[in-house]
Amino acid sequence: MIPKIKIVTVLIIVVAVASIFYYAWPKAPGPGPVEYPESVLSWAENIRSKYGGTELTVVMITHPSTDAFKKMIPEFENLTGIKVNISEYDEVTYTDKLMVMLGEGTIPYDGFACAMELLPTLAMYPEFGYPEMIVPIDDFIADKSLTPEWFDFEDILPAYRDIMSYGGKTYGIMMAGETVMVMYRKDLFEKYDKEPPRTYDELLDLAKFFKEEVPEVEAGVSIRAETGFQNMWSWGNFLYGYGGGMIDPTTMTAEFNKKETVDSLKYFINLCEYGPVGILGYSFPEAWANFREGKSAMLVEASAACPGNEDPEQSVVAGKIGYAKFPTGPAGECAGVYGTGILIPAASEHKEAMWSLIVWLTSKYNSPKYLEYGGVANRVSDLEKKTYPYYETILKTVMEAGNTPLAKKMRAYYAIGPDFYPLWLSCATFMGQAQVGNITPEEACDEMQAAAETIIAKFVG
Amino acid sequence: MIEKWKKLKKYYPLLLILPAFIYVLVWVVYPTFLTLKFSLSEYTLGTPWSAAKFVGLANFKWVFFEDWEFVPSLITTLEFTVVQVVGGLFAGLGIALLLNRITKGRNLMMALFIIPIALMPSMVGLTWRLFYSYDGIVNFFIEPLFGKINWCSTTFALPAILITEFWQWTPFFVLVFFAALTSLPQEPYEAAKIDGASSWLTFKDITLPSLKRMILIVTILRSIEALRSFDIIYTLFGGGPGIATQTLSIHIQRTAFLGRMLGRGSALSLVLVLITLAIIIPMMWYFTRSRS
Amino acid sequence: MKVKFGNVVIYVVLFFIMLFFLFPYFWMILSAFKTPVQTYAYPPVWIFTPTLKNFTSLLTDYNILFYLKNTLLVTIPTTLLALIIGLPAAYSFARFRFRFKEGLFASFLILQLFPSVSALIAFYFIAHSIGLYDTQLMLILAYLVWNVPLVIWLMRGFVEEASPEVEESAMVDGYSRLGAFFRVTLPSILPGLMVTSILVFITAWNEFTLAYFLTEVNAKTLPTMVGLFRTQTGTMWGMIFGLSFLSTLPVVILALAIRKHFVTGLTFGAIKK
Q1: Does the distance separating the beta carbons of B241 and A99 come in below 8 Å?
Q2: How close is the nearest chain B Cα to the Cα of A116, in Å?
């Protein structure tokens, strides 16, 4: 017995060592030196003379855009002489870790990725008497020596710029912007002579139709419904278009038990009934997988799903997908706009150098490379090129439905402050109870209303 | 000199324990202090620690009188723990006994039993989440018998997490019991064989008493872990659907990290500690009394 | 050769039990060679053209060897130190009688209950204060807090099983207590020692939360890699399964290699009580 094990062990070690050598062997050198235009070289020269030799520590989330950035960094380092260290985290645990760090009162990096949900709260800290966490970057943008012509700030989608700012000041540059759309099976819609939904009611009718009458799919619509962050996110996309609201930031009143809010919850629960079995456990991976396996006719999801939808290794319905703007609700157009951007912490001692890195990574000049490496498009000029079938829809959704007053009201919720995190949790739990049928939507909304009013009273008082 | 040595010898047993005790004590002090401090404060995670406001016992009042999720979570936790401990004991002991009866291949099987516990709990949760999907491998095997089951429903979510946790942890019982069984002295068994005792009697009168202490130790250890089990339950259904699979540890996580209410979360976790103590202290007392 | 019917039944039962406990692992490994489409397919895909992309990606793009190195640097010292610190205490509890014995014994388990939710924050703060943030040493120190009590509790049970009389007779023959322990007791508690070591090893190897919060760049261990595959563009199942497989491989090989020692080599029949 023992000699046999020894042989097996030795064999395994040999294979392991061999693979290490094979894969760690120095790779062939990359492409030759790039020709840069004069404006780039003079900018780089300026940066190098002032900040060359600095070392930057940047924290990012795991994301295709981050992968694209990592490929663009060697050029930056060569041009400016600034060294960049990037560490990556998955989104959920990253937020938890950030929360713990914030306890110490400082973000100890030169740059970090921040989701639009968190940005307003961080920007508001001085108003609460907490230390400053992030710094506005408007001055950097205006400084011509730091921000060259080929960066083109205005080219970034207006709604994306909006969610990266607070109180009129810009705090970050969008790296992975997204919006919510309806993705549908073009082939099935053609076969059954259906048009993509333009209103909430049409969406519901189509979902019902495809679930009940179409044998090719098992569900009408695939959507996130898991209790926690996900179900609130999903419902939130429909809530404001119904005319409902959570907390009106201008009047500081709770709107959970307004008729429109209750109706929107009923609508959402209704919509889920035409979804796949087990939808109550669906976070975005499950929702996407269901659609990509061809089991549902529609997918209501963030545009981050698009690239994978069209990848044959991930999706059996690649090439058969149509993309529609998020439908209009009874109260008007309102599409959720989300995203993660790169921000500069107040504690950074190399703010200008960090800004030059951001300029390099997100500029219009570098956009072709960035997109080629797999980055998410955030610029009007890129989306207008219609490189992919979904670009046009993303542009349309964000431009037309992403900056309406309703959409702005939706985003204003995040600008209320850290005292309102508990509200999100209560709402998610009560919504979950309504989804499983333990309480009615009316009761759920009443509970949310009560919770909101308690917090408002404490906040105002 | 010899006098000093003799005096020290008296403390010999304690000296063997001292390094371990001091080590654990030292590291536990500050975290415990922090938990206590937060449990008496109102503190939003993500704000500076200095912003924590002292509120006395308000958080505990909330736990016992205002938190409607406390009792359901407590019940789920207790159900979960009982099933895991009792199920694991029976299954683990049973399998270990079976392994002990055969001679060929038992070491190999024992070694392979490592596999479920060698996997990361969150990995196990993630994988079984995939398995439990409506079009997953579990339903594939069940379909011919019962038809496909919606595992993410209020009826089946709890059984799902019970099965998965059982899958990962039973090997713990098997390994410990098997090691204990093979270390038992052989003469009583030989004597019993000569006397012609049945295997059930042998088990009842020889094996079981010899294993009693080990069984208690393992029960106490597993109870503690089951009461605070988190990764598998969280990655499987996140405590859902609704709060169908929400145990106290999930409730604590959601309160402290999703709701960012660290004060209440800390109070809840201290309550969980007290509940754990209430359960294991009687077991420990019984252990003390059961001299072998 | 008479084949005992009872034995056959036992083997059959054990076969099905092993099937239950091992099938998911087998399925995970199989799926590590699949594309995402094949992973989600229903009916499940058994025969397909495998792809090595996941494994090669783990090695080159994700640099898994770096994480492996860190995990080894943390796990092996933790296991050894936990045994060195815990075993004497376990022996003491098993053999001697003294005041506060059971209280002390219980306290090992009770003490490590209290940190709970704030353990994370507390250790994070401590790590920064003593300058050990993002080091393997910090992880070792933290892991010992939970593993030493585990060693003490499990090994006490195993040492108690080994009869003290045998030790006594060895000491009568002239060995010191330590010598008697090594000569006589150790061989008989070897199975228990092996099991305890493996359990500690696994606990340290798989620990995620503290590893995530207490490291940044230098000391990241294998469990922290899981986060890299739960991206905004979906869960990369093939990578996760590949990581699972590679991560459990060392432990499984170790267990297989030392499995002879799960059974004690001594026969007690020789020594009369």
Answers
A1: no
A2: 15
How far CA A34 is from CA of A40, A65, A81, B49, C208, in Å, comes to 12, 22, 16, 49, 43
Q: How confident is the model at residue B3 (pLDDT cuts 50, 70, 90)?
A: low
Contact residues on chain B for C221, CB-CB shorter than 8 A: none
Helix (H, G, I), strand (E, B) or coil at A55: strand
Q: What is the DSSP string of B127-170?
A: HHHHHTSTTSHHHHHHHHHH----SSSTTTHHHHHHHHHHHHHH
Whether the CB of C231 is below 8 Å from some CB of chain A: the reply is yes
Task: Write down the mean pLDDT value for chain A.
Answer: 90
Domains A44-178+338-401 and A179-337+404-460 share a fold: yes
Residue A177 to residue A198: CA distance in whole angstroms:
23
Closest-CA distance of chain A to residue B214, Å: 31
Domain ranges across chain A: 44-178+338-401, 179-337+404-460
What is residue A14's predicted lDDT score, i.e. its pLDDT? 77
Kindly tell me if the per-residue pLDDT of A164 is higher than 70: yes
Give the count of beta carbons closer than 10 Å to the beta carbon of residue B60.
16
- The angle subtended at Cα A373 by Cα A367 and Cα A378, nearest 5°, is 40
Name A180's bridge partners. A302
Query: Are the C-beta atoms of residues A181 and A397 closer than 8 Å to each other?
Result: yes
Helices (H), A220-378: 229-239, 259-272, 284-292, 306-309, 351-362, 367-372
Domain A179-337+404-460 sits in CATH at: 3.40.190.10
Which of B17, B40, B130 should one mutate to test binding to chain C, selecting the residue with the greatest count of C CBs within 10 A? B17
Task: Give the ipTM.
Answer: 0.88
Report the b/e string of B203-241 with b at 16+ CB within 10 A.
eeebbeebbebbbbbbbbbbbbbbbbbbbbbbbbbbbbb
CA B180-B184-B189 angle, to 5 degrees, is 135
- C227/A62 touch (CB, cutoff 8 Å), yes or no: yes
Three-state SS annotation for C17-64: HHHHHHHHHHHHHHHCCCCHHHHHCCCCCCCCCCCCHHHHHHHHCCCH
Is the CB of C232 less than 8 angstroms away from the CB of A289? no
Cα distance between residue A412 and residue A404, in whole Å: 12
Predicted confidence at residue B105, as pLDDT, reads 84
For B176, nearest residue in chain C (alpha carbons): C195
Q: Is the pLDDT of residue A5 over 80?
A: no
Task: Give the angle C127-C64-C251 at the CA atoms, nearest 5°.
Answer: 85
**Euclidean distance between CA atoms C157 and A62, whole angstroms:** 46
How far is CA C100 from its chain centroid?
Answer: 31
CATH code of B73-289, in short, is: 1.10.3720.10
Q: How far apart are CA A133 and CA A109, in angstroms?
A: 11
Architecture of domain C52-261: Orthogonal Bundle (1.10)
Candidates 3.30.2350.10, 3.30.70.1350, 3.40.720.10, 3.40.190.10; CATH matching A44-178+338-401: 3.40.190.10
Helices and strands in chain C, H and E counts: 12, 2
Q: Which tokens hold the place of B195?
A: 């006397």
Least confident segment among A11-20, A275-284, B172-181: A11-20
Euclidean distance between CA atoms C49 and A161, whole angstroms: 46
What percent of chain B is modeled with pLDDT above 90? Answer: 65
Instruction: Determine whether the interchain pair C240/B123 forms a contact, defined as Cβ–Cβ distance below 8 Å.
Output: yes
Give the model confidence (pLDDT) of B224-280 as tens digits. Answer: 999 999 999 999 998 878 899 999 999 999 999 989 999 999 999 999 999 999 999
Question: Prior bond to C43 cis, omega within 30?
Answer: yes
What are the Cα distances from residue B291, in Å, to A326, B286, B287, C155, C161?
71, 10, 8, 16, 12
Q: What is the mean pLDDT of chain B?
A: 90
